[in-house]
Every structure is written in structure tokens, then in C-alpha cells.
Amino acid sequence: MDIKNIIKSLLRETVIDFVQGDFNKIQAKLQNGLSISDLKEELSYWGSLTIPPDAAYENVHFYKYDDGSGYALEYELWIDNQRSDLTLSCEAIIDENNNILAFTVENLHVL
User: Domain range spanning residue 68?
Assistant: First the structure.
């Protein structure tokens, strides 16, 4: 499996955590001073998060770091069974053998 597909699997798991409201799992992935209360506040302005169709993961925006250390990625979450402007920003840090060293949630914002 190529590295982007592995990262998409981690993203899918994270999206499911958001949909199920499993903030304990999400807490372990938070970075940049982002808190669970920040996430809950942002989510309170929207409808219900829903699990997107598998095809929606083809719309992940990947940004490879110039130094090869990983990827930033952005993904539009699904609200009430429709793609929304609410965007989940994550980061995947990889080693020279394409092993995932870390997968973190960087931000939740409107794009």
C-alpha cells in the first residue's frame, strides 16, 4: 500500500472518531495548542457530522513537505450526509522508509 493510502486510512479512523464523538482518541492526536473544547465549540455551529462515502477520501488534499519528512493534509468533513466547508487539517510525519512516525490533528476550520 502506498504512503498516501496509509495516511488516508489514518484519516478515515480520525473522521470516524469525530463522528462518534470519541474525544479521548482525538485528544491523543491534538497539536498546536488545539483543545477538545476548541473542537467542540467549532462543531457546535454545524449540523451532525456523518461518515462520508469511501469515494470522498479521493478528495484529500495532500501537501508534501519539501524536506520529505511528511505531509500536511486537508479534508472537508461531511455534515448531514453532505460535504461541508468544515475542514480537518492533519499532519503525517514519516521516516525515510515511509513509516508513519506521527499522525496529528492540526486544526478544524472553515475553508
Answer: 3-110
Q: 55 is written with which cell numbers? A: 469515494
Distance CA 18, CA 23 (A): 7
- Comparing C-alpha atoms, which of 103, 111, 110 is closest to residue 30? 103
pLDDT one-digit tens code per residue, 39-79: 999 999 999 999 999 999 999 999 999 999 999 999 999 99
* C-beta of residue 59 within 8 angstroms of C-beta of residue 75: yes
Residue carrying C-alpha cell 475542514: 87
Total domains present in the chain: 1
Q: C-alpha grid cell for residue 76?
A: 472537508
Please identify which residue in the block is written with the cell numbers 488545539.
34
